[in-house]
Design a protein that fits this description.
By secondary structure, the protein is of the alpha/beta class. The chain has a single domain, classed as NAD(P)-binding Rossmann-like Domain (Rossmann fold, 3-Layer(aba) Sandwich). 46% of the residues lie in helices and 15% in strands. Strands 3-2-1-4-5-6-7 form a seven-stranded parallel β-sheet, sandwiched between helices.
């Protein structure tokens, strides 16, 4: 049975990916930072359908906590096959109104976390060090190429960094049995949009801004992530794939 670790998996897209992974037969590490009850609910949902999952607490912006997270995953789940770098935060503030702490928080959560987690994953997966290979899926956003909504410069820039990181990491580890790809979700129905007025406002925007005329679901993003992690995507590497309804 393969092992998948999903960061930021207590809610939203991360939770949907974790549940889909459990249904697909993975042993699933459900990482969370503060939302312990929600993470255990995701674990419970996976176990209720016969899957295997554990909740693993760590702030993935902190390299020491990331090291502990991966050690716990090793001990409780076994050898890692797939890392889904999903953890991240949405922020809304104008460039002329931000302070250093706000900016640092966004990049630590959205970008530094991916470096920390990918580093730990590569140390385990790389055939160069005796690993059996694996897959890394990074969650970006269409904000990386659209610039995001007003006040979203920091968020959009952080997601642009993820796109570039994905391409660079793919070049580094492609000969070591590790495939690296990213997904760029668009307007997806999750509570991350509370900072921009909530899901209903987001649905209204999607009705006019998205060529398909609707917002997407976390489950639709999860299916794309599971495909990228699977042997069906065995020659997909260094790709950044939109899940955005054509937007």
């Amino acid at each position: 049975m393969k092992v998948m670790l999903v960061t930021g998996a207590s809610r939203g897209i991360g939770a949907a990916i974790a549940r889909a992974a459990g249904a697909a037969g993975y042993r699933v590490g459900v990482n969370y930072h503060r939302s312990e009850a929600a993470a255990h609910a995701v674990v419970g949902a996976i176990r209720a359908t016969g899957g295997e999952a554990v909740a693993l607490q760590a702030d993935v912006a902190d390299p020491a906590q990331v090291a502990r997270l991966f050690e716990q995953a090793d001990a409780q789940l076994g050898t890692l096959d797939v890392l889904v770098n999903n953890a991240g935060i949405l922020a809304s503030f104008r460039v002329d109104a931000l302070d250093h702490a706000q900016l640092a928080t966004v990049f630590q959560a959205n970008v530094f976390s991916m470096f920390h987690c990918a580093g730990q994953a590569v140390r385990r997966m790389s055939t160069k060090v005796g690993g059996r290979g694996g897959a890394i899926v990074n969650l970006s956003s269409v904000a990386a190429r659209l610039g995001g909504l007003a006040g979203g410069a920091a968020y959009a820039a952080s997601k642009g960094a993820i796109d570039t990181f994905t391409l660079a990491l793919a070049k580094e580890v492609g000969l070591e049995g590790i495939r690296v790809n990213a997904l760029r979700p668009g307007l997806i129905e999750t509570d991350i949009h509370d900072v921009h007025g909530g899901v209903e406002r987001m649905k209204g925007l999607a009705a006019t801004a998205v060529p398909m005329g609707r917002s997407g679901s976390a489950d639709e993003v999860a299916q794309a992530a599971l495909w990228l992690a699977s042997p069906a995507a065995s020659y997909v590497h260094g790709a950044v794939i939109d899940v955005a309804g054509g937007r």
